[in-house]
Amino acid sequence: MPSCVTWVKPPVESATFTSTHFPTGTMIHFDPTTNTFNLVLATSLYAFRADDEGRLLHMAWAPRPVGAPTDLVLGGPGFDSLPRADELPLTRRFELNTFCDSVQQEVALKVTFRDSPIPIRDVRLRYAGHEIVTDAQPGLAPTHGQPTAVSTPRETLRVRLADPAQPLEVTLCYRLTPEHDIIERWVEIANTGAQPIEVEALAFATLHFPNGTTELTSAAGWWTREFTATRERLPMGIRSIEQRSLQTGHYANPFFLLNRPGQAWEETGVVYFGALAYSGAWRIVFEQLFTLDVRCQVGYNPFDFGLTLMPGERHITPAVVIGVCAEGWGGASRRLHAFALERVLPRPADGPAFRPVLYNSWEATYFNLSLEGQIALARKAATIGVELFCVDDGWFGGRRHDRAGLGDWFVSPEVFPEGLEPLIAEVHRLGMQFGLWVEPEMVNPDSELYRAHPDWVLHFPGRPRTEWRFQLMLDFGRREVVEHIYGVLHSLLSRYAIDFLKWDMNRYATEPGSVVGRAIWQAHTAGVYEIMDRLRRAFPHLQIESCASGGGRIDLGILARTDQVWTSDNTDAYDRIRIQEGYSLAYPARAMMAWVTHAVNHQTGMTSPLSLRFDVAMRGSLGIGADLNQLDEAELAEYAQYIAFYKRIRPVVQGGRLYRLQRLEEYGASVIEYVSPDRREAVYSVAVMSYQQGWVRPPAPLCGLDPDAMYSVTDRRGVEVYRAAGLELMTAGIPGDAFGGAAYSRTLYLRQIREPD
Ligand code: GLA
């Protein structure tokens, strides 16, 4: 160790917990004799310790043997012994890797202190104390004040680290949701000196996985092809998934599942998982070392990153949500879903218990809007059972096409001469809620806003301003821009009785020039979150959908201030089977907006039957996007019957536990099941994407039911098609799908019944 780094062992704190069985209820344990921390969760544990020099070193993260005589990893010096001591700097498992812990590998933190003849980039963090608190919040936590479904306080362990030779303090935070085996990790970094500190890389956490944990499941894609699940072996060295963007992005989504190859499957095996609560430029970088250890730095994308910490300033990063379970990829997904449902999605006390059935008129009318046309659609939507009617793009300013008008958020007198009042009044009279599309971060050069404020867009002076879909991005680094956008949206919501906003975002950054410099990569997301939070606070009944050219902004950060997300502009039922399966790896069905659109799909030109379109869309939060004027009475009646059925199964779909019984990649068909938490109800859904002649598909055994209970299985008409005990359903499955051909699909509802004595 360099001589400048010394560590003074802090005094043993009095408020430490010593009981292995936690009579106080705490799940956080500190052993002052070995300086070992244990985070004990329902079925897993996480342990690390400060070594004799105060370095915070990772020890364990694994499912724990429940019922063992002790719940704790005791720690001890033996953990440092490796065959070759000179390799230690490369292999030591720091809880947060800093530049100069090792310069050969990826790091979580890199800073420059300029107040020395040779600017210092060497950071060594040493343990300086810790506390356990119940009210800690990560950076960019929602400020709208609305509760989540479960709001009981959670314990957070804050471990303070300091560089003994530099004015830098770093606090590692661990907030526990033990019932779901989840830890939220984030970092606080403070400049305690008199000179600015330049932060060049900052992750929210360093993660360590047991060696050989090299099978990565993640999602990649693009517009209309979001959430393509990929499964691969991590190479030796580096594999990163990332987005260099001002939104979460389509290329990749910020979550991962990781396991030892061949040792995990859908419902079995140890699987690690993680997901970011952040919608800006992010990176998750895995590194497989020569020891076969796997580590990961997860947080801000270091590409073009720059954060200057002024004297006395503190920066708090958003959180990464992590966990491990022994129930396979399905177990990991269910934990993430439960966490999002209970702890992330806002749930105002008097808000709807379930997501309403939505109608969106975009694919029916595109930019060809009129009061009469929208009212005609609204009347038909109401008759088939729609609960929320949303007008999409084209209602404002000069927006008669996509080349003009963005930025001018006032109702177009050309389209709605009497304002929106007559339409909203009619929608409300019909018993539906009213929703409106906005794209607040954007401006068309052909707009009043741009003509008034050409400097308000991201640009580098004197350099090109690249348009994408004829639009430029506003500079949310400018306070006046954030205030202006908040102001116009606030006026809109004050004037009109709007229940729902579809908040869109339809381009990537090209020239990220901002008045805040490189900080725009964070400032943009902070601005979006701030406006959404302030609007939710001002209008507590407002619901928001996150859309970014389809599924370009879906993550646990945006979900904390929205009610649902638009999964993809691709509404083709065949493609949706795959897109939704990828989405389901990390995110809950409740938030997944899924529309039934036209028989001949507008994006792909593929034809699919109504049954497949409904069976696929009913796996999430149901919406209708078809032109209802093209449907005859019989078809409208069929829509109505499906929607009524959906309302019956909706509590199970939107609040149940998901089991992927047969995955698309294995069978060319996707069979999924949602089970209500009390196991009294379930929904069984089959959708076949491709079918080879001669294929015989055995029934898929169900999961998660009560083996002793008897279940009645009914179709959408309420006709009982099967009746069996849970045990039989969980071993033999439901017969009848064996010879399903192309476009085959069905949705069944299972309900526990009492057999007559
Ligand atoms: C984006 C959205 C669509 C629709 C259009 C309107 O593409 O993803 O759903 O709202 O914009 O221009």
Q: How does this structure look, described?
A:
Helix content is 19%, strand content 28%. The protein folds into three domains: 19-344, alpha-galactosidase from lactobacil brevis (Beta-galactosidase, Chain A, domain 5, Distorted Sandwich); 358-488 and 498-528 and 546-654, Alpha-Beta Barrel (TIM Barrel), CATH 3.20.20.70; 661-752, Golgi alpha-mannosidase II (Immunoglobulin-like), CATH 2.60.40. α7 (479-495) packs parallel to α8 (520-538). The longest helix is centred in the last third of the chain and has 23 residues, at 633-655. A hairpin with a 5-residue loop joins β7 and β8 (168-177). The model is unreliable at 1-24 (pLDDT under 50). With 757 residues, it is an alpha+beta fold. The chain contains 13 helices and 36 strands. The chain binds alpha-D-galactopyranose (GLA). Alpha-D-galactopyranose binds next to loops.
